[in-house]
Protein backbone atom coordinates (compact mmCIF):
# COMPACT_ATOMS: atom_id res chain seq x y z
CA UNK A 1 0.00 0.00 0.00
CA UNK A 2 1.52 3.34 -1.04
CA UNK A 3 1.87 6.02 1.60
CA UNK A 4 -0.15 8.49 -0.46
CA UNK A 5 -3.14 6.14 -0.36
CA UNK A 6 -3.13 5.54 3.40
CA UNK A 7 -6.25 6.64 5.22
CA UNK A 8 -6.31 7.66 8.89
CA UNK A 9 -7.86 4.23 9.59
CA UNK A 10 -4.97 2.51 7.79
CA UNK A 11 -2.47 4.51 9.85
CA UNK A 12 -4.27 3.63 13.10
CA UNK A 13 -4.32 -0.04 12.09
CA UNK A 14 -0.55 0.01 11.48
CA UNK A 15 0.03 1.65 14.87
CA UNK A 16 -2.20 -0.88 16.65
CA UNK A 17 -0.86 -3.95 14.79
CA UNK A 18 0.80 -6.21 17.38
CA UNK A 19 4.57 -6.17 16.85
CA UNK A 20 7.63 -7.90 18.28
CA UNK A 21 11.20 -6.64 18.53
CA UNK A 22 13.46 -8.67 16.20
CA UNK A 23 16.80 -7.35 17.48
CA UNK A 24 16.41 -6.87 21.24
CA UNK A 25 20.19 -6.58 21.69
CA UNK A 26 20.46 -3.49 19.47
CA UNK A 27 23.23 -1.16 20.56
CA UNK A 28 23.27 2.57 21.09
CA UNK A 29 25.12 4.54 18.42
CA UNK A 30 26.49 8.06 18.75
CA UNK A 31 25.51 10.53 16.02
CA UNK A 32 26.93 13.94 16.77
CA UNK A 33 25.57 15.03 20.13
CA UNK A 34 22.84 12.35 20.06
CA UNK A 35 22.64 8.79 21.29
CA UNK A 36 20.40 6.75 19.01
CA UNK A 37 18.96 3.26 19.30
CA UNK A 38 17.06 1.49 16.50
CA UNK A 39 14.99 -1.66 16.88
CA UNK A 40 13.55 -3.69 14.01
CA UNK A 41 9.99 -4.90 14.57
CA UNK A 42 7.91 -7.56 12.83
CA UNK A 43 4.12 -7.63 12.78
CA UNK A 44 2.68 -10.60 14.68
CA UNK A 45 -0.30 -10.92 12.34
CA UNK A 46 -0.35 -12.24 8.78
CA UNK A 47 0.36 -8.80 7.25
CA UNK A 48 4.16 -9.30 7.20
CA UNK A 49 4.54 -5.57 7.97
CA UNK A 50 7.96 -4.37 9.11
CA UNK A 51 8.59 -1.44 11.45
CA UNK A 52 11.38 0.43 13.18
CA UNK A 53 11.33 1.81 16.70
CA UNK A 54 13.92 4.54 17.27
CA UNK A 55 15.03 6.47 20.31
CA UNK A 56 17.18 9.58 20.24
CA UNK A 57 18.60 11.59 23.15
CA UNK A 58 20.77 14.70 23.21
CA UNK A 59 23.72 14.02 25.54
CA UNK A 60 24.96 17.61 25.84
CA UNK A 61 24.79 19.18 29.28
CA UNK A 62 21.57 21.14 29.75
CA UNK A 63 19.77 19.37 26.88
CA UNK A 64 17.96 16.71 28.94
CA UNK A 65 14.59 17.75 27.45
CA UNK A 66 15.82 17.07 23.88
CA UNK A 67 14.70 13.50 23.24
CA UNK A 68 12.31 11.54 21.07
CA UNK A 69 11.20 8.05 20.24
CA UNK A 70 9.11 6.95 17.32
CA UNK A 71 7.62 4.21 15.23
CA UNK A 72 8.02 3.98 11.45
CA UNK A 73 6.63 1.56 8.89
CA UNK A 74 9.28 0.12 6.56
CA UNK A 75 8.19 -1.03 3.10
CA UNK A 76 9.71 -4.03 1.31
CA UNK A 77 11.59 -1.46 -0.84
CA UNK A 78 13.11 0.17 2.24
CA UNK A 79 10.96 3.31 2.26
CA UNK A 80 10.06 4.64 5.69
CA UNK A 81 6.93 6.39 6.94
CA UNK A 82 6.96 7.86 10.45
CA UNK A 83 3.67 6.82 12.06
CA UNK A 84 4.21 8.53 15.41
CA UNK A 85 6.91 10.28 17.43
CA UNK A 86 6.96 11.15 21.12
CA UNK A 87 9.00 14.32 21.71
CA UNK A 88 10.31 16.06 24.76
CA UNK A 89 9.66 19.77 25.42
CA UNK A 90 12.91 21.04 23.87
CA UNK A 91 11.36 22.91 20.95
CA UNK A 92 8.28 24.73 19.72
CA UNK A 93 6.12 22.82 17.23
CA UNK A 94 3.73 24.38 14.72
CA UNK A 95 0.83 22.40 13.27
CA UNK A 96 1.17 24.25 9.99
CA UNK A 97 -2.17 23.31 8.44
CA UNK A 98 -4.12 24.41 11.52
CA UNK A 99 -1.81 27.30 12.44
CA UNK A 100 -1.64 25.98 16.04
CA UNK A 101 1.57 26.41 17.99
CA UNK A 102 2.70 24.06 20.75
CA UNK A 103 5.17 25.82 23.00
CA UNK A 104 7.83 24.02 25.02
CA UNK A 105 5.71 20.99 25.98
CA UNK A 106 5.93 17.25 25.53
CA UNK A 107 4.04 16.35 22.39
CA UNK A 108 3.13 13.37 20.23
CA UNK A 109 3.29 13.51 16.45
CA UNK A 110 0.86 11.35 14.47
CA UNK A 111 0.80 10.63 10.77
CA UNK A 112 -2.45 11.81 9.18
CA UNK A 113 -3.94 11.70 5.70
CA UNK A 114 -4.57 15.45 5.94
CA UNK A 115 -0.85 16.16 6.29
CA UNK A 116 0.11 13.63 3.58
CA UNK A 117 -2.41 15.23 1.20
CA UNK A 118 -1.36 18.74 2.24
CA UNK A 119 2.23 18.25 1.08
CA UNK A 120 3.54 18.20 4.67
CA UNK A 121 5.44 15.52 6.54
CA UNK A 122 2.96 12.73 7.20
CA UNK A 123 3.61 13.07 10.94
CA UNK A 124 3.51 16.88 10.88
CA UNK A 125 0.50 17.05 13.19
CA UNK A 126 1.21 16.94 16.95
CA UNK A 127 -0.73 17.30 20.18
CA UNK A 128 0.35 18.15 23.70
CA UNK A 129 0.64 15.40 26.30
CA UNK A 130 1.34 15.14 30.02
CA UNK A 131 1.74 11.35 29.93
CA UNK A 132 5.54 11.47 30.05
CA UNK A 133 8.38 13.75 31.14
CA UNK A 134 11.47 11.75 30.16
CA UNK A 135 12.67 9.52 27.34
CA UNK A 136 12.11 6.45 29.51
CA UNK A 137 8.48 7.43 30.13
CA UNK A 138 7.95 8.38 26.47
CA UNK A 139 9.29 5.01 25.33
CA UNK A 140 7.04 3.26 27.83
CA UNK A 141 4.00 5.11 26.41
CA UNK A 142 5.01 4.35 22.82
CA UNK A 143 5.51 0.62 23.51
CA UNK A 144 2.06 0.43 25.12
CA UNK A 145 0.30 2.60 22.51
CA UNK A 146 1.84 0.76 19.55
CA UNK A 147 1.36 -2.81 20.85
CA UNK A 148 5.06 -3.72 20.94
CA UNK A 149 6.27 -6.93 22.57
CA UNK A 150 9.80 -8.04 23.40
CA UNK A 151 10.96 -4.79 24.96
CA UNK A 152 10.13 -4.41 28.61
CA UNK A 153 9.95 -0.76 29.58
CA UNK A 154 9.57 0.89 32.94
CA UNK A 155 8.96 4.61 33.41
CA UNK A 156 11.00 4.39 36.63
CA UNK A 157 14.12 3.05 34.91
CA UNK A 158 15.65 2.31 31.52
CA UNK A 159 14.25 -0.30 29.15
CA UNK A 160 15.14 -3.91 29.65
CA UNK A 161 15.08 -6.80 27.23
CA UNK A 162 12.24 -9.24 27.72
CA UNK A 163 14.13 -12.41 26.90
CA UNK A 164 11.52 -15.02 27.78
CA UNK A 165 8.20 -13.53 26.68
What does this structure look like?
This protein has helices at 8-16, 113-117, 135-145, and strands at residues 19-21, 29-31, 34-43, 50-58, 67-74, 80-87, 93-95, 100-102, 107-110, 125-128, 148-149, 151-154, 157-161. It is of the alpha+beta class. The chain has a domain at 3-88 and 133-161. Strands 1, 2, 3, 4, 5, 6, 9, 10 and 11 form a nine-stranded mixed β-sheet that branches. It has a two-stranded antiparallel sheet with strand order 7-8. The radius of gyration is 16 Å and the shape is globular. Mean pLDDT is 91; it is low at 158-165.
Annotation keywords:
about 160 residues; alpha+beta; disordered C terminus
Topology:
Elements: H1 8-16, E1 19-21, E2 29-31, E3 34-43, E4 50-58, E5 67-74, E6 80-87, E7 93-95, E8 100-102, E9 107-110, H2 113-117, E10 125-128, H3 135-145, E11 148-149, E12 151-154, E13 157-161
Parallel strand pairs: 1-11
Antiparallel strand pairs: 1-3, 2-3, 3-4, 4-5, 5-6, 6-9, 7-8, 9-10, 12-13
Amino acid sequence: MGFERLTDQDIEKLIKTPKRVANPLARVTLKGCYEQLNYKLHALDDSKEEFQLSTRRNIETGMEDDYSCGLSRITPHGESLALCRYHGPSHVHLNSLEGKRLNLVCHIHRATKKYCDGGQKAEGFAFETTRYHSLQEALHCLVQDCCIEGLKTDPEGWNQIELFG
